[in-house]
Amino acid sequence: MSLDLRYVLRSLSHAKVFTIAVVLTLGLGIGANTAIFSAVRGVFLRPLPHADGDRLMYLRHHTVNQGQTNVAFSVPEINDFRAQSRTMQQIAEYSPLTLSLLEATDASQIDVGLVTGNYLSVMGLKPIAGRGFTSGDDGAGAAPVILLSHAYWLTHFAGDPKIVGQTMRISKRAVEVIGVLEPAPFFPGRIDALMNMSISEHHVSAMMVQGRSHRMTEMIGRLAPGATVNQARQEMAIITQRRNAQYPESYEKAAAYTVELTPFKEILGRDARMMLWMLMGVASLVLVIACANVANLTLMRGVRREHEMTVRAALGAGASRLRRLLIVENLVLAGAGAVLGLLVAFAGVGTLSTFVARFSPRADEIHVDWMVLAFTALLAMLIAFLLSYVPRVGTEHSLGAGLAAGSLKTIGSGRRKRLQQALVITQVAVSMVLLSGAGLLVRSMQRLAAVDPGLNPKNVLTMEVPPDFTSPDIARAGQRYEEMQRALSSLPGVEVVGLGSTVPLRASQVQLEIKAESRPIENGATPTAEYRTADAGYFRAAGIPLLAGREFTAGDAASSGKVVILNKTLADRLFADVDPIGRRVAWTGDVLRFVGIPENDWRTVVGVMRDTKDGGLDATPMPVAFLPVSQAEFPPGGLVIRSTVDPTGLTTAARAIVRSIAPEQPIENVMSLEAVRDESVGPRRLNALLLGGFAILALVIAAIGIAAVLAFNVSARTNEIGIRMALGAAPGAVTTMILKEGFLLVGLGLMLGVASSLALSRTIESILFGVASRDPVTLAVVAATMSTIGLIACWMPARRASRIDPSEALRAS
To answer: Which of 99, 161, 84 is nearest to 129 (CA)?
Structure first.
């Protein structure tokens, strides 16, 4: 074997172009697959860091008939499951909350999860420094404490262990840092730390603890020993039915409340599943093209080495000996390609982690580990053995006999030529599939970018200055926002400054049931609407058109008649066949008593605004009810500044003004309204770039493969072409002949590619927007692009064939 290895290394050193081409091609193909597999491994295959993580279960409410699929639980509901469940060993509570953090020089936000004292025990997690939570941290009388996440500890405190025992100023309260948690993913979103409930007066209030309809808590359970997921699901369904019947006032029959139980590991990767497996499929197709290209290069090298192999066979080398030599050579090439592939994967893992972070909290677990290395090694060996059987496909006896009888005249053997042609057709077809997918994503991105957001975003700056609802002086917050508004209005170029609960095009987190006076409820299910607030300048600042009635005015004061403005979707839902102006609506539902809004607090509809694309340009408009800021139960948190100048030029001055008025309030997401609009295009742009990058790589490899095969055929047919030209064939005729042969392969590849694209198009249907998965325009453009590239690839060897000197070709033969 060592002799074979030395010979192979010496042989490859004399074939530098071949060696470099094969290693680069395999390196790119293997690297793409290794990088994607590292993501699949991190999100789906890697065991959870939690002890017995497979026993963790995540539970959510569904209201089947209202279409709400992600509803939280109330504390009484969680206590029902605690008391009645036998399949759950423990159940913990988790409530995400954003709080204000006051530091030495600035204020910012910190995202925390409020948890019960048994949370770490249920989750199977331990602190790496300090202590965890205990039952003594539960209840209103407990001092607020904080357990830092591992990531926040590293980024915010540089991994300093001395932070344990120190205090942080959160929501104007001193909070002790009790420890640092081991690295672990959180759901439903990333958080900076865990805290006990006492930091929020609302979370430990009787309203929260006793309110059955006050649903703002996540529920995570651990299966009891011996219990299965199916048993737990059946038990949860029984408990839910019993509960719904026992408290009919909290569970409308029309809503059809159910509970879904999902393994925690599965829920962490649910949103990433389709995208990652699609990318794995794409990377596999790139590897197919790479292997097809290398197989063609191997065939060509095999022909040039046929004389060598014939001599070896004549000297007594058996077929198995010759095959072993090929295996060693291809193991060396595939091994070098694997090393290069690992370098490619290491370089791409960071970008891939950023991409996956949009879909899964486990993105931090994506890295190259032993399993990824094993996958790469196995892939390299598989490729090596496949390529070793490309030069001659047949039995060992036929291989030896063929080599013993071989000569240079066999270079055009029909079987070898057909294999080369099949490989080229495969490369073209796979490239067509990838380019079609990339084209559909690009078209989706273009269609999304062209969507009308429902407002005029030009020259508008937005700022989020969220109020701290846990702060004792929350009542004064409204006055501070009015001060900000007056000061910002004095900036040069500013036309109007609007105040609202959220900035335009951002999704709202508050949805309440709403009813219209003397109007029937459709399907027996009370409609819901987003609760938003706006002042007299908000709609003008945001550029949202008024469709009917009037906007808010300064006269809509707290002491005036209560009014409301609806968006078109809500107006159509509540008043489909009548004019909504002058009609009355009111918030309703059991949850109102928990958020401080009175029942039957009727408001007169004074206006209807155009729908806006809140939450993304691809979002379906939600029903929205706007209340005047002066009549709302909560202070605003969004500032909208319309100007006559570039809004980004106002950023520094606007920040300074807000900071001078409210130094302890965080300032978030200072950006133009156009940038807010474009946020929803960004993920689709990244999707298109990823798939487009793979497609371009495949196209380049395929084009090189076409040109290489035709160039090889021209070289092999030099004698034939010389005779043709000696007998009077014009150079143009020779060019046409070679072009026809090459373009026949391209045409067959395109036909197969179009058929495959149509068959596979539905796999990406869910991530398309405004374009059909079988869009004929995309297929036509891609086919034309592939034809052009194919023509260029065919032209170079065809041009070379037309320049063959007949006399030299005949002398060489």
So the answer is: 161
For Cα atoms 766, 772, 774, give the angle at the middle one, nearest 5 degrees: 105
Within 10 angstroms of residue 369's Cβ, the number of other Cβ atoms is: 13
Residues 6+ apart with CB under 8 A from 246: none
End-to-end CA distance of the chain: 38
Walking along the chain (813 residues) 10 residues at a time, the average pLDDT comes out as 76 82 90 93 93 94 70 91 95 92 83 95 96 92 95 94 94 93 88 94 84 87 96 95 89 81 93 88 90 83 64 65 80 93 91 88 91 94 85 46 46 68 88 90 89 95 83 67 94 96 90 87 77 96 96 92 96 92 92 80 96 91 95 90 94 94 89 92 83 85 79 72 78 84 89 92 85 91 90 82 72 59
SS3 64: coil
Residue 517 vs residues 509, 557, 582, 587, 588: alpha-carbon distances, Å: 25, 23, 11, 11, 11
Which DSSP helix (H) or strand (E) runs through 346? helix 319-356
Amino acid identity for residue 736 in this structure: T
Alpha carbon 593 to its chain's center? 38
Q: Distance between CA atoms of 606 and 623, rounded to whole angstroms?
A: 16
- Give the β-pairing of 56-63 and 127-130: unpaired
10 Å CB burial of residue 688 (0-12, 13-18, 19+) is buried
Reported in sequence order, the residue ranges of 236-364 that DSSP labels E, i.e. its strands, are 257-263
3-state secondary structure of 218: strand
The span from the CA of 276 to the CA of 257, in Å, is: 32
- Cis before 636? omega within 30: no
What whole-number distance in Å separates Cα of residue 440 and Cα of residue 434? 10
Q: Which residues pair with 62 in a beta bridge?
A: 258
| Beta partners for residue 499, in sequence order | 639
- What does the domain layout of the chain look like in residue ranges? 1-52+272-411, 65-255, 413-449+681-813, 466-666
Which candidate, 605, 623, 624, places its Cα nearest to that of 516?
605
Residue with tokens 């000061």: 487
Closest CA to 348 of 398, 286, 392, 298: 286
